[in-house]
């Protein structure tokens, strides 16, 4: 029995080491393909890697670069947005997003977007959801400690009063922002058009009136789904129906 367990342990160890070596070789192969300017091959290898290991900001950034240099604007923007989820303040992600947005065919004037959507987009462009939750948790802990001291240390109450008001206000604001971001991402998830050109219909099907055309790299949020179609909303207020197969969700 001990020999069987030992053999099983050794087998699992060998499999684990082989998988790690294989992942390392895949990373090296993708980097080599990128260096020799075979960007389509690099993108394919990075996609394979994403099926094997947990996603990271750096991996999506490299994949986005590979797609962009191979001429696929839609997939490039999609992966830059996914990289932004992991490292929203990274300068390379921000610069590459600006470049690919400037090169896509559709210009979306976001000046008409409402104050609340603009504020939520700004928060997500600077903080990950985990960081936002960590700030809220820190505020909640600080409020709890402050409240305990307020009731236990009567002589400290005057000094604690202003601090408690500030901490409670900030924690409440963070709670509202956290819930708003979560609700927005859940009910109106963001997506990117990946097909080169998509007809926008007035309803969920090809029998409806064609009202517009959008192209790869167009960003949107989902309003509703019906069958194989989604009704989208863009920052300029435009709406319409497009096939689900022409898009990919960022999250």
Q: Summary?
A:
With 251 residues, the chain is an alpha+beta fold. It has eight helices and seven strands; from the N terminus they run ααααααααβββββββ. The chain is globular, with a radius of gyration of 24 Å.
Description:
The longest helix is centred in the N-terminal third of the chain and has 34 residues, at about 1-35. Mean pLDDT is about 85; it is low at about 1-20. A hairpin with a 5-residue loop joins strand 5 (about 230-235) and strand 6. The strands form two sheets. A five-stranded antiparallel β-sheet has the order 6-5-4-1-7. It has helices at about 1-35, 40-50, 55-70, 75-85, 90-105, 115-125, 130-150, 155-185; strands spanning about 190-195, 195-200, 210-215, 220-225, 230-235, 240-245, 245-250. The chain is built from eight helices and seven strands, in the order ααααααααβββββββ. The chain folds into three domains: about 10-105, Alpha Horseshoe (Serine Threonine Protein Phosphatase 5, Tetratricopeptide repeat); about 115-185; about 190-250, Roll (SH3 type barrels), CATH 2.30.30. With about 250 residues, it is α+β, with helices and mostly antiparallel strands.
